[in-house]
Design brief:
Blueprint lengths: L12 E6 L6 E3 L6 E2 L8 E2 L21 H22 L2 H7 L5 H30 L1 H27 L17 H31 L6 H34 L3 H21 L13 H14 L12 E3 L27 E2 L17 H19 L1 H8 L4 H6 L5 E2 L2 E2 L6 H27 L7 H28 L16 H25 L5 H30 L17 H25 L37
Antiparallel strand pairs: 1-2, 1-5, 3-4, 4-6, 7-8
Helix pairs in contact: 1-5, 1-6, 1-7, 2-3, 3-4, 3-5, 3-15, 4-5, 4-7, 5-6, 5-15, 6-7, 6-12, 6-14, 10-15, 10-16, 12-14, 13-14, 13-16, 14-15
Amino acid sequence: MASGDSLNLTDNATVKGREDNLGGVGELGNLGRSNSSGNQGQNVMTTTTSKKTKGSKSFIKKNSGGWTLASLLLVNQGLATLAFFGVGVNLVLFLTRVLEQENADAANNVSKWTGTVYLFSLFGAFLSDSYWGRYLTCAVFQGIFVLGLALISITSSFFLIKPAGCGDGVTECHPTSQIGIILFYFSIYLVAFGYGGHQPTLATFGADQFDESKPKQKYAKGAFFAYFYFALNVGSIFSNTVLVYYENIGQWTLGFLVSLASAIIALVSYLFGSPGYRYVKPSGNPLPRVAQVFVAATRKWRIVPANPDELYEVEGKESAIKGSRKILHSEEFMFLDKAATITEEDLANGEPKNPWRVCTITQVEEAKCVLKMLPIWLCTIIYSVVFTQMASLFVEQGDVMYSKIGNFHLPAASMSIFDIFSVLICTGVYRQMLVPLAGKLSGNPKGLSELQRMGIGLIIGMLSMLAAGFTEVERLKRVTPGEKVSSLSIFWQIPQYVLVGASEVFMYVGQLEFFNGQAPDGIKSFGSSLCMASISLGNYVSSLLVNMVMGITAKGSKPGWIPDDLNTGHMDRFYFLIAILTALDFVVYLFCAKWYKCIILEGNDNIEKDQVQNSSVETNNQADGDEVVRRV
């Protein structure tokens, strides 16, 4: 049988009927029953047998997990984030001061690196869902993360920071050797590989610690994603204040060593909880499963799909996908239903076994879920362009603003502390005040649906770009000819950082819940990784925009919008350009959100639907938290 690790098709096949979109499922027909629809003499058939398929258990451990183990994972997330931002938050200044890169080049390199971090999340999610499982994937990639931080500490100490204390904005570093540059880039991309590879899997692994069959734990799982993002920001407080300060005065190696120590403690704490975690078995490689649907549908492109109650499905509570619950039929992408339509040719040599010719309803719906999520996901990329400015252009902007408090010089990268505090405060306000209030007004116990929150995040993100643009306008007005630093206080940046932080609470927490909740059981980590892949592409798009803008505006004697000397440029226009793109993206997002229909799983007694009206979007209780692999 083709792709044995993807499907568990046996002779125990049946066609399951659906009474309606949310109703019960009944058996239909006997072998040889014909549905007369079809072309070119092919009759669509349905089939059933008396045996039932035994599904394999999803969980290796049943009576473990809970908030104790989930809290340990939150601590792990905080420590790992501290270590990561100890490298990432000040990277743009390291490139300009130590490696002597120009502002535009440094901003682009940071965007590419950050994009690669989150692009690796797709690779980690694939290994987690397909082969390794959540626990092993997190352990391996956190080990790689530690190795990368160790290498960057050694490289900076022996090859880059010469003389000691250079790169503080005053003392220039000696020209770096080629081997030093190679080791530096290798080490930071090793850090990217380790951190990005385990992030989405850690979020899903934390959600796995809750048993959604218990009402209290189901609610707790919905709260976990908010606390996960909360822990991320708590962890970055130290790196965005203390570490940034020491790195800004030239103590780069010390900052990297502290990050290394934090990553080691994070790994040890993660391994400490090994005996008590709830472990989920991987469901096999999803790529062949999705490919089988398209191949089978293409082979039957001439036939008319069977009625929904006559499509092919295995019997029993478990689906043919190992460890995955069944998904009920949906009305979108009906052409894919041909893959689950049984013809006389399929039954010529007995009951259907070949998944490249006949797929189950659940397998078809898994492919549909991926297709349905893609438009929503694409609409989040522009927001990630907004978010990535905080680690690049915001820092460069702050570096040429007045930042002294008495005799103390405030590092530009430390301003991100206002983003962090904004996230922490807005998370509390949202969960303790807005959710109860919105719940009373809308009748939805979750307050706002995930898609509604993401839309609000887009609007606030657009406002942050407008605030950054107006700040830059005022900064340029207060530039003294011949002076690098404007007289405008760096604290004028507070509104743009606060607005970005508020937008994160709505956008990124909403994304984590939405993509994880709407992803089928067999690709949960993939669902979580979509959020981080959005950040990845956002960084690449940001880099592309910078190159395009400089290519268009920097012609002849014109310095362009983002020159090396920002006082001669117009970075404000770049911010306004992003704001306009975000507004256009929001309009497209509204159409996509209105069109989206949520996944409906078989056997869930708590399905509810929120009808789409105007800016509201359809959602259900499956989207609250995530749908973990079925506990048997």
